[in-house]
Amino acid sequence: xxxxxxxxxxxxxxLAAFTGILAAAFLGGGPVxxxxxxKAAAPQPSGPRTEEPPKRPEPLLGVEPVAPIEGxxxxxxxxxxxxxxxxxxxxxxxxxxxxxxxxxxxxxxxLAAREAAELWGAKQSVASAxxxxxxxxxxxxxxxxxxxxxxAAALAEFQTVFEKRFAALIAATPPPADxxxxxVVLPSRDEYLRRTHPRMFATSHTHLPSGWAYLAWTGRDLxxxxxxxxxxxxxxxxxxxxxxxxxxxxxxxxxxxxxTAEYLEGAPVPLKGSEAHDAxxxxxxxxRKVVREGRFRLLRDFLAIRQADLDAESDPLRLFAFxxxxxxxxxFLETSGGGKRRELxxxxxxxxxxxxxxxxxxxxxxGDLVAFNGEF
Length: 376
Fold this sequence. Notes:
Structural class: alpha/beta
Mean pLDDT: 84
Radius of gyration: 35 Å
Distance between the termini: 119 Å
Helix content: 40-55%
Low-confidence stretches: 1-40
Strand order of the largest sheet: 4-5-6-8-7
Oligomer: single chain
Shape: globular
Largest sheet: 5 strands, mixed
């Protein structure tokens, strides 16, 4: 009986094993064997590999890049071929015996005048007075009524007005003796846009790293644009000894640079072809309009705006409202209370020219901005 039972058990086990094999075949059972997963190689781009162009260095007030930016000089567009000829001509001029004998301001003026002549071609009329080098297209059919010499003389007179107003600031830390301020007047806005890198909606601007100013002759009075850019150039000159390493342009307090330039546009300096009227009257009317339309900012927000914020603004109405408020705030500091707040503007100028602008400098100069807003 036992052998028979053994045979029965073995037969049962054999049947179970056979059933398990069939189940594994049909149902996928059985031991799990780990699979080796091979990572597919990342797809390679077809064609030659292109590298991203190098990023431009952060523009610095008063300091040009050590390596010149390709395709431009002093903020002016130039082709590669022109740049080669330009650099060679300047190198030859600097190495000439008569140039090597010059030093200090005389050498700086001579080099800037030669650069203006080389940069803008033989048709330019170049003149100088004080620190100013003026290049103007003397061959254009619709040329400005004032010559390069007359413009340079007017800028030198404007410099006297500026230095009288900010005498204490200049006496504390005067600008370098060899600073120069080149001004280029282009014959039209189309030429201005083609040859330079202006901000949106601009007809004049100053390249802050180099101090070169560019203006478009549009048939209107040149004096406001000239004195506007001259103000910027003078501030740049005063900043150089205070912040010799330069100040990032994006961090500049926009109201100070724009407001003082707008305010000093109305300096009482005559220029041939200019209208004899108070430019402040125009800004007063525009400021009243901006106030009526509710586009004046709270002083706390207004004083916090940096140059980078202004450059990123694409709405012309917002830009114009900011300009009007910048003029109004500088006018307030200059004239309110019989001029007792002028020292506040001087104190802020000292801070901003040393690289310490922004809301912190505003609070340090003007105190509680909410209370000061009420006075403004």
